[in-house]
Every structure is written in structure tokens, then in C-alpha cells.
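Blinded run. Sample ID left blank on purpose so nobody reads anything into the name before looking at the predicted structure. Input follows.
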Amino acid sequence: LLALAAICAAAKPKPLFSSTSSDVVVLTSLNFNAMIKKNRDDHVSMVAFVSSSDSTSKALVPEWSKLATDLKGIVRFGAVDCDQETKLCSEYSATTFPALKLFPTGSYKFVQDYTGEKTAAAITKYATKHVKGSVKMLDANSFEDFITANVSKPHAMLFTDKTKAPLLFRALSNDFKGRMLFGLIPSSEKALVARYKVKKIPAVVLVKGEKSGTFKGELKYETIFTWLNNYVETFTNEVQGNEDADAGPKKPWKNEVVPKVTKDSFPDICLTKKGLCVISFLNTQNGAPSKEDLDIITSVKDKFESQIQRGTSFFFMYVDPAEQPQLAAGFSVSSQPSVIILNPGKRKRYALHSGEFTKDGLIGFLDKATGGDLRFVPVSPLPPVV
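Blinded prediction complete.
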């Protein structure tokens, strides 16, 4: 019997996609609603329904993985293993493989079958044309109405030579829908260029009232997203006059890649957010964790960065148990490094990671949380932070 089981295990095809080795979201019946259906509120997804035993599905893997990385945060790329998820594949009429389907923005819109070439270039062109966004074209006449509308919200403006909003800016406008207004200003509008001291085109300027800041980093989706996300909630306190927004916020943890849990940072980053907090308990030296530990956490954070505003949002922090012994004890942490996921909702619950403190181990832990098959236990009252 053991020999027969070994033969059957060896014959079982290996899944084509793994969340630990690519940016493709591995989809199951447990996480499909959260990762794809909810994503349709403001975003576009492409899903490959594949079979591990199908040669054409296997050939798709490199292209699909490249797309997921190149368009990370702009278009979500997922994959369903139809050898395992037969009901889910049947629901979407995936009977031949690979079946590629686009889930456009708006749940009222039909799911679309992609029948074009299975190359990264062709699929990119097809998927990105469905990313519409909400970016207002501006000139000297329309600018004042734009900048004085919804004065309680920041206004993100792209100064550019382009006549249409680029893909990156359209995607960002979807991410911050309802929290920020987006406008495009042609570089020919010299008065506006001078008003905001724009020295190089293209440029991204963030404005709220009389305060403004200019983005100084590389014009890529993730870097601009992080910058905007840091400032959208605390802009009033962060930018004075026409100072550079890169000067840093008054809440220093906003600019830390993995902030430390303190009595001030914990409520701001974790307890008042809608999402899950990933808290690592780490030994420190001279007040800081080791570079090796931080590199592991950062690599996992980067992996899930594009899920901010989509599906499950994760917020990463670390604890020095020597400084917060009550917090460690309250979450049953007895050794370092250890990691918990805290659901900071009304009924606070947490799950303690029992596996290895490695990139793959932590990604698997977070995948279980997004898939809905992680067991959380209640914590009441919440351990104090000193």
C-alpha cells in the first residue's frame, strides 16, 4: 500500500503556479471572491484556467509570470488549477486549457474570453486597454475649479508632454478612488508649471489647499503608490508651504519600511486599519533587528504590496519583545523570531505562525490568511503596548 501511495503521489502533476515563486495569485474556491470578484470594484484582473497535465498550459507559465510582475498593481494576474478546482472551472466554462479570461471593472460587466496570441506583449495590450481610471484633463481655465473641488482631499497632478493619461496614472487613480483627485496638466501650461516649480517633465505633484509636494523618486507604479499612500491620510501635518514632500512626515513610522510597534505607531498603522496586521517579534541589537530578519520581512511585504486597496490588505510591523513583554505574552510568543497575524476588527483575533521564519514560510502563512483557511483565536483584552 505504501508503494502504491508513493507511485500515485509521484504521478500527480505538480501545480504550474506557486505564490512563492511568482507574482501570479494562485486562486481557489476559498479566495476567488476576495481576490477577483471584489477586485472588480475598481480594477481589472486576468485569470488563466489551467491544467497541470496540459502542455499548452505549461508553455503559458513564463509569459503569465512575466505579466504578473510587469503589471503588478495595475492588472491582477491569477491562475486556477482546474485539476484541483473543478467546480470553479466549471462555473466559468473553462473546458479547454488554458482558458484566459478578463474580469473588467464593474461586476455588472460580462467576463470576457481572451482569444488572442498568448504572448506577454499581446496580452498586455489587451488587458491594459480596459484600465480606464478617473483622470481629469486640465488647462488654465479648468484648473481652479479642479483644485478647489473637494478641498478636504489631496489632488495628485501629473505634468506631462502626453495628451492622454498614461496607464500608470490611470491605475493609481483607481487605487485612490474616493480618497484623492487626479488631474493631468500639459507641459505647455507654463503658468501652472511655474506655479508648482516643476523643473522636469514628467512630474507628479501632490496638492492640498495651499500646501504642495513634488515626487522625487523613480516614476514607477509601486514607488509612486507608496509615496501617495504615505501622505494621503496625514498630508495636512506633513507638508508645509511648498516644501518637498520627500522631506518626511511628522509621523516617522510612515517612512519606515517595517515600522516598530510603539504606543503611537500601533494604533496608526494597525488598529485603526481595515485589513490584517503582520507583526514580527524579533531580537534586536542596538535598538534594531538584524538585516537578515528585516530582509525576509521586506521581501514578503514586497510580495503582497500590490494587494493594498485590493482583496486583503496587510500592514507590517515588528516588536522588540524585550521592550514589549506583555505584548509577546498576550500573543503566546515564547521565542524569536516569531510572527502573528492580527485581525484588528471589533472582535480582535490572531493567528500564530508555526512554520519556519523564511520568505517561503511566511508567504504560505499569508496565503492561508487570504484563502480563508487560517485558524484565528480571540484575544481579549488586547495586550497593552508601552
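Unblinding after everyone has recorded impressions. Residues 2-10, 236-249 have pLDDT under 50 and may be disordered.
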